[in-house]
Structures are given as structure tokens and as C-alpha cells.
Amino acid sequence: MKHQGILWGIAPIGWRNDDLPEIGAGNTLQHLLSDIVVAGFQGTEVGGFFPEAAILNKELRLRKLKIAAQWFSSYIIRDGMEGVLESFRRQCSYLQAVEASAIVVSEQTYSVQGLENNVFADKPHFSDHEWEGLCEGLNQLGKVAEEYGLKLVYHHHMGTGVQTAEEIDRLMAGTDPEHVHLLYDTGHIYVSDGDYMTVLNRHIGRIKHVHFKDARPEVMNECKKVGKSFLQSFLSGMFTVPGDGCIDFTEVYRKLTGAGYTGWIVVEAEQDPAIANPLEYALIARRYIDEKLLESTCESEEGQPYEHRIR
Predict the structure, then answer these.
(1) How far apart are CA 246 and CA 167, in angstroms?
(2) What is residue 295's predicted lDDT score, i.e. its pLDDT?
(3) Is the pTM of this model over 0.85?
């Protein structure tokens, strides 16, 4: 699918969490989608609790919403391509049916993001041979995704073997830019490296999907100090939505739009919905986007049409 301009979405993870299914379990699909409409976003990503394509499409049409993408956990290093292709094709088929534009891939071999390990100190690392196999496998998966009209966007992520700017550099250098693209996540790279602009500036041409995730540095520093796991860290409130943390999204948004980025920007923040009301935080993000990003962009481009306002 081709998108004109920028589409603004918000991820379902604020309502229900795939890693901890008990979190927000009472929030139904209809509740989630209706909150997204109230907050003024144009779509979302597929959550693990989403129904078959026909049912989801009906709910989307009723609310005039779109699907941006869905996460796929790859185990290319652990299982080889023969262990990945069938499930990857099945998910691509589903995403094609719901008219998504991308499939979000993250290599989960050795990942500690769902374990009790100290996520700040115990991240995995790949050998040279493993890097070679991962990059070759991603090139192949990228070609498969294109058969379904999708882009493969790789998600750098805390607790995995592709987390830091250096590791992202290596992945980008080792993969084919025609078939493997980058998902740029502000929150993950900030928590990992303390810097979110280097990756954006260096790989702006490879970025085809964006997550706007904010962070609370005081919570992050405490989590680092005591060595919390990824799950413990986000339950403690390490992540939040734009406008509620420390990241300057005006700088990020200016770089993206200045480089001609088009496609989805998806607000995402792993939080406990029993503590952080999902609709309340969706509205915080929406207000920040309107007042700090869209209005400022409009003011800085005199005479240019105001194309990116959320409708």
C-alpha cells in the first residue's frame, strides 16, 4: 500500500500486553479501537489478541481505521530459515488481508526481553557467523514480505542482539537496502545508548516505519541501578507517550519530515493500563503531537500546506 504523507497510529500495547497477557486483559478489541478513534489517531498495529482478518476488517471499517504493521519474532540464528519461513509467510498473509504496509521483525535468539535478566547488563551478542546468517536470512525474508505487498522493517530492541547504534550499523551494513528496512524506535535507542539522534541521522534513508516512545529518565536510572528486567522496567513506568517524558520529538519530527519521510509514525509505550489509563495517555500524546509537532511544523513552513494534521 502507498500512503501519502504521514499516518499517525498508536500501538495496542498501552491497552494490552502480549508479553504479559494478564495486563489489561479486560480491554476488548472494540474498546481499544474506539479509544483510538476518540484520541484522533488513524490506525494501530496488530496485537496478539486480535481476531481473524475478516472480523478485524469489519471492526476497522466501522471506525475508518487502518492497520500499520505487526510484530514478528524471528529465530533465524536458532532455528535456521526452514524454521522461520512457514510462520513468516502465514503472518504476511494475515497482514496482507488486513491491508497493512509492513511486518516488524526482531531477532529473538538469546533475547532476554521476556526473562528476569538484568536488561541493562545481560543483553546477548552474536558471533560473526551468527551475524552473517542473520543478515542473509533477513534479506530472504524481505523478499518474501514483498510478495505480499509488505516491507520488512527491523526493530532494534532492548534485551536483544540488535539493540545499540553499533549493532544497528552492522545490521544495516550487512543487509540489502532494497529488501531490509529499519524501524526507528526513539525509546529503545534512548534507553540503550542515551542518544536517539545518531541512529536517525545515520540511517534516515533506511527508515520505513517509526515508533514514537518516550522515557522517564528518573525511572530508567533507578531500574538500571537495581538491575531490573525489561518487563519489570516498563511496569515501573520507564516508558511513556510523547509529551510525558524527556525526549525532544520536535527534533526527531523535523529530521523525518525534512528528509521526506512518508508512512506511519506509531505512538507506543509499554505501561500497565491499570496505572496509566490508555485513553488518557493516548490523549496526552495526541495533544503533544498537535501542539508541539504539527503546529510548529506548520509555522516553520510558511506558505506550505498543512498536510500532516491528524484527522
Answers:
(1) 24
(2) 80
(3) yes
Q: Using CB atoms within 10 Å of the CB of residue 82, give its burial: 0 to 12 exposed, 13 to 18 middle, 19+ buried.
A: exposed
User: What contacts 28, CB < 8 A, 6 or more positions away?
Assistant: none
Residue 305 is assigned to a structural domain of this protein: no
**Angle at the Cα of 207 from the Cα atoms of 218 and 229, rounded to 5 degrees:** 35
Q: How far apart are CA 168 and CA 17, in angstroms?
A: 25
Number of structural domains found in the chain:
1
Residue 309 inside a domain? The answer is: no
**Rounded distance, CA 169 to CA 151, Å?**
19
Give the structural domain span for 181. Answer: 6-298
Report which secondary-structure segment, H or E, holds 184.
Answer: strand 180-185
Low-confidence ranges of the chain (pLDDT < 70): 1-4, 296-311
282 within some domain: yes
**Distance from first CA to last CA of the chain, Å, rounded?**
20
Considering the domain boundaries, does residue 307 fall inside one?
A: no
| Rounded Cα–Cα distance for residues 263 and 210 (Å) | 8
Beta bridge partners of 70: 46
Tell me the C-alpha distance between 190 and 181, whole Å: 20
Do the bridges between strand 151-155 and strand 180-185 make them parallel or antiparallel, or are there none, so unpaired? parallel
Q: What's the CA gap between 151 and 69, in Å, rounded? A: 9
Asked if 96 contacts 148 with a C-beta cutoff of 8 angstroms, the reply is: yes
Q: What is the pLDDT of residue 298?
A: 53
| pLDDT score for 293 | 95
DSSP state of 83: G
Q: What is the CATH classification number for the domain harbouring 289? A: 3.20.20.150
Nearest to 29 by CA among 2, 9, 52: 52
